Every structure is written in C-alpha cells, then in structure tokens.
Amino acid sequence: MITEENKTEIIDxxxxxxxxxxxxxxxxxKMREDADFKMEVELQKALVGQLQWEGREKLRGHLKTLHKQxxxxxxxxxxxxxxxxxxxxxxxGMAASVALLFVAGLIFFLANQKxxxxxxxxxxxxxxxxxxxxxxxxxxxxxxxxxxxxxxNVIVISGTEYQHHYQFDDTLKLYLNQFSMxxxxxxxxxxxxxxxxxxxxxxxxEVDRGFGRLDMLKKSVD
Amino acid sequence: MADKYKNDRKLIDRxxxxxxxxxxxxxxxxxxxxxxxxxxxxxxxxxxxxxxxxSVIILFENAMKGKLDKIEASVSTYLYKIARNKWLxxxxxxxxxxxxxxxxxxxxxxxxxxxxxxxSLQWDEKLHQxxxxxxxxxxxILLDFYxxxxxxxxxxxxxxxKDMNSAKSKKNKCMNRARQIAREIIKxxxx
Lengths: 222, 191
Fold this sequence. Notes:
Radius of gyration of chain B: 22 Å
Structural class of chain A: alpha+beta
Shape of chain A: elongated
Number of helices of chain B: 8
Largest sheet of chain A: 9 strands, mixed
Strand content of chain B: under 5%
Helix content of chain B: over 70%
Strand content of chain A: 15-25%
Number of strands of chain A: 9
Number of strands of chain B: 0
Structural class of chain B: mainly alpha
Oligomer: heterodimer
Distance between the termini of chain B: 66 Å
C-alpha cells in the first residue's frame, strides 16, 4: 500500500521498472484516479533527471581538473592550435593555389592532347575472352597457351575520325574502320609483366590499360 | 582457463563501491591511446579531451548501472571503443552541413522551435532552483544516490548517519522536500 512514508521509494521503483506486478498495478491505478499523486510521480521523475544532469556536470568538472593536472601539454597545444590556425589557413591557401596551378596545367596539357577528344561512342558491344598467362607469351597460331578464365567488355566503334585506335580502362574501346561479328577477338593478360595484348584476327597488338588514353593500336613486337 | 578480464572486473567492482581513485586511474592510464586515435583522424587535442571525457562518463554510468559486471574485454578496450564510436559519429555529423537544410516554405518553424525551447529551458532552470533551495546535505545525498548510485551504506558512511536505515530515511525526506519545493514553484510561476 502506498503511504506518505514509502511514497518516494515506490515512485523510484516505478521509474526504475523494479516494482512487482501488484504494486505496479496499484501505482498505475492511483495515477489514473489521483491527479495529485500523478503530479508527484512527474515531479520526482523531473527531479531525478535534473540530478542526473547535475551529477554528470559535476563529474565532467572533476575530469577536467584531473586532465589539466595530468596532461598540461594539452592546454599548451590547444593554445598552439588557435595560434596555428591562421598559419594553417595560410598553408592550406598555398597548397590550394599549387593544386589549382597543377590542375590548370593538367587541363592545358590534356586539352592539347588528341586522346582527350572524346569520340562518339555508339558502338558494338562484345564480350571477348580474357586469357591470363604467366609470361609465356602466345602459343601456336597466336593463340595464348592459357585457357580463358574470364571475359572482358569490348566496344567496337566505327565511323569516327579515329581509326585503329583504342582506349582501355574498365572497358576496352576499339576505334576501327572496319569490323564484323565474324572477326576473332581476344585479350591476353601477361601476369608476370602486367601487360595486355589484343588479338584481332590472329594479329597481336599491345594495349596499355588503366589510363583511358586514346592511343593508336600498335602491333606487338615478336 | 585463466580469467583474462578478472582484474578489469575488480576495477569495476571498486568503482561501484565508490572508490573515487579508480576512475582517475583509468582516466590517466587510457587517455594517450584515445588521443593518438583522434589526432590521427583529423582531430585536435581539444577534441580528444572532450571526446575522452564524454567516454569516461559513459563508462562510469554504465558501470554503475551494472552493465559492465560481466565485461568480456579490458576496461581500456571498452573505453577506446566508446571514444572511437563517438569520434566517428562526430565526423559523420560534420559532413552533414546544416547550411544545406531546406525547410518547407510557409511554416514558421523558427518561432515554434524557440518557444518550445524556451519553455524547456525555463523548466530546467526551475528544477535547478529547486535543488539550490533544497541545500546541503540533501542535495549531495540525492546526487550521490541518483547519479553516483551510492548504496545507503556508503551514504551513511559519507554523511555520518548511524546506519543505512537512517540514511534511507534522510534520502526519502530530502526527495519529499524537493517535490514540495517544486510544487510551490510551479504554483507561483506556472499558474
């Protein structure tokens, strides 16, 4: 039974969720029937919340003092951080300027390189076998010794100003003046030398992967 | 098999028994690790101090709630993990630039928020007044009980009561008095 003497403890139990079923039912009933009691519960809840906040602040204050006593170098560094803020800003500004110059230079360089001119990309999409070798080169009739373990996406683009060119990053783009589905295509990756070769109708071409540059197809040197 | 974390659990026990030195020891012992992590991840010494103090507070609160009674990691690892999560959360929040928040037109959002916030601040201020008016030792007894989770035995010892029943009776009287002061303040200020 809820009395003046046990009220605080019962409210604590209610707020902590530690009351037994009977007492919980009694508290809930009393809260419904007695507005005054309900207010007592709400006030205690608010006060406990405030005490917890103040306790936390008290602990934080203690930790701050402890920190200053044991890690005085942090206070010095904090001042240094503020002082260094403007020099860091200056450094960042300089770095940004250098980066801007570099980017501008790069744009100028690339703009003067033919490969960055992006040709029309309406092409024929084909999946061709990708062979991996350990540096043994090509076998009989230009076919790789290894078996195809993977495939690679190739887009064959015709009818542009570029003929006999390629671009190779994720996809291999071939700019060819003539190509038919009957043509034989494959790519061989030489693991030992990290090089790629394109085999087109038994003719082998060296292709560089990764830069996306537009380059001319050059026959491999035997 | 040897209990790897026996010493860590002993540490938590000491903390729960009100041994104030333990938290200081842990604080000093584990700080460098957290500081190094934050400095390596675009933070400053100030950030490290703030995040670490928040983390130690969480460690303390969880320990007092009994959440670390069966801890299966070292206290330093636990603390490092809290600090790491807090810092990652902070970094993620920093990426969310509030300047890019776009509110729906036609809603007087700011005035609504301010008025709600003001009421809440006024109420917090009143609660603070209640505790000030309550004075000591009541305020400290309630703080020790409700935040520092001291047992009645510990409170009796700290405040010089003859036993835990006397301490309990005093604590209950203090809370009754606090509620009474709060009621009076509500009556005068909010009606």
